[in-house]
Specification:
The protein is an alpha+beta fold and 112 residues long. Helix 1 runs antiparallel to helix 2 (70-81). Helices cover 21% and strands 37% of the residues. It has helices spanning 13-23, 70-81; strands at residues 2-8, 29-35, 42-46, 49-53, 56-65, 89-95. The chain has 2 helices and 6 strands.
């Protein structure tokens, strides 16, 4: 099993969710996060004073799936979240050793 962790622009969340749903992926965890990278934040003005905002609001989507579907789901996320501008985000992939569905006790692929 693999875990995909995608950090994307907040305005792309609904598009990515719909694309994953059409592919048959319904289970995911979504978190609002702050981060910085090549985008490096922005400078704002409040009551005549400049301030630097180094952390940009992003959304993190986490999906656990069997390894056979990994490449297709990765392509769906990347193609749907891409705008071509700095700040589109990143995707990280991790190995998942075990999974347990608490309600039923099902394990591994049966739990996801």
């Amino acid at each position: 099993m693999k875990k995909i962790e995608a950090i994307i622009r907040p305005d792309k969340l609904e598009d990515v969710k719909e694309a994953l749903s059409r592919y048959g992926i319904h289970g995911m965890t979504v978190s609002q996060v702050l981060g910085c990278g090549a985008q490096k934040g922005w400078v704002g003005v409040y009551r005549g004073h400049e301030y630097s905002m180094n952390l940009i609001p992003k959304v993190k989507i986490e999906v656990v799936l069997d390894e056979l579907r990994l490449d297709e789901v990765l392509q769906i996320i990347c193609n749907t979240a891409r705008t071509g501008q700095v700040g589109d985000g990143k995707v990280f992939i991790y190995s998942v050793d075990r999974a347990v569905r608490i309600r039923t006790g099902e394990t591994d692929e049966n739990a996801i």
